[in-house]
UniProtKB/TrEMBL annotation:
This is Ornithine cyclodeaminase. Pfam families: OCD_Mu_crystall. One of its GO terms (cellular component) is cytoplasm.
Length: 306
């Protein structure tokens, strides 16, 4: 038996660009891929947790096995590590192994871009991103792939991390600056990409026509936005089942009395033409689902096999 190829981050990004990942995910939505994937399974360990995310598509099946170790950054190790295994759907033969963190780094901003493409105002030029890690960078690049973003404001945990990330963006030719309350109020798109347990942007800062991508957590006890923001938003989720099981931003708002009817569509319904009021705030809450990994891994494997 031949050993399946291993796809690391440089190989994955060479095979699948952000625009290609965005197209693959939207194509999978239109083809009805998001079906009845099992919810993410969490297995606690002494230093963190294992997360298991299986999915089945027409030609391929796959499973992501990742670990989350909150103490790792202090050890100068990645917080998230793991492996994605892609199989043939008919024979269940393993076809390829992927760096799971690399796959997550690509598909998460790509799925936010699919939502933003259908939710943000077409003339959006101002982006503010909360966070300074790989997901923040991925979201800046993804938003620029689907809108004519002219400037990027950065909300970091510390002035030092903010300045470092601003320099990273400037060094690759992106106009960026440390953001404050007034910049958030003027932002057309807000991407919240933090590991915060409590809201990072007060509702009073957020403009009336802003679009928010809220992707930082899949924990019921963590949220990046206030209840008031959820209450006045048109919320879109990957799936209602996953959101109700894992999205602390929403579940805590519902516990505060916000009706679940603020969820106006899932992604498949949105791509299929769900009606959205352009004069109101829109919010995409992502917890990450297995079919997203499968769609991007399948595309990468097919390109690798040419």
């Amino acid at each position: 038996m031949t050993h399946p190829p291993y796809v690391d981050l440089p190989t994955l990004t060479a095979l699948v660009s952000l625009p290609a990942a965005i197209d693959a995910l939207e194509g999978a939505l239109r083809a009805g891929w998001p079906g009845q994937d099992p919810l993410r399974t969490s297995v606690p360990t002494q230093s963190g947790e294992f997360l298991l995310m299986p999915s089945e598509g027409p030609r391929y099946v796959g499973i992501k096995v990742i670990t989350v170790a909150p103490g790792n950054p202090a050890r100068r190790l990645p917080r998230i590590q793991g492996t994605y295994i892609l199989h043939d759907a008919a024979t269940l033969t393993p076809l390829a192994l992927f760096d799971a963190a690399a796959l997550t780094t690509l598909r998460t901003p790509a799925i936010s871009a699919v939502a933003t493409k259908h939710l943000a105002r077409p003339d959006a030029t101002e982006l503010v991103v909360a966070g300074t890690g790989p997901q923040a960078l991925g979201h800046v690049l993804a938003m620029r792939a689907i809108r004519d973003i002219q400037r990027v404001g950065v909300l970091g945990r510390t002035p030092e991390s903010t300045d470092t990330f601003v320099k990273t963006l400037v060094d690759i030719g992106i106009s960026a600056y440390p953001a404050g309350a007034g910049d958030v109020a003027q932002a057309h798109i807000l991407s919240l990409c933090t590991t915060a347990r409590s809201p990072v942007v007060p509702d009073a800062w957020i403009g009336d026509r802003a679009h928010l991508n809220v992707i930082g957590s899949h924990k019921l006890t963590a949220r990046e936005v206030e209840t008031a923001t959820v209450a006045r938003s048109q919320v879109v989720v990957e799936s209602r089942e996953a959101a109700l099981a894992e999205a602390g931003d929403l579940v805590m708002a519902f516990a505060d009395g916000v009706p679940p009817s603020v969820i106006v569509a899932d992604l498949a319904e949105l791509v299929g033409g769900a009606t959205i009021d352009p004069a109101r705030v829109t919010l995409f809450k992502s917890v990450g689902t297995g079919w997203e990994d499968l769609a991007v891994a399948a595309l990468a494997y097919e390109r690798l096999s040419r």
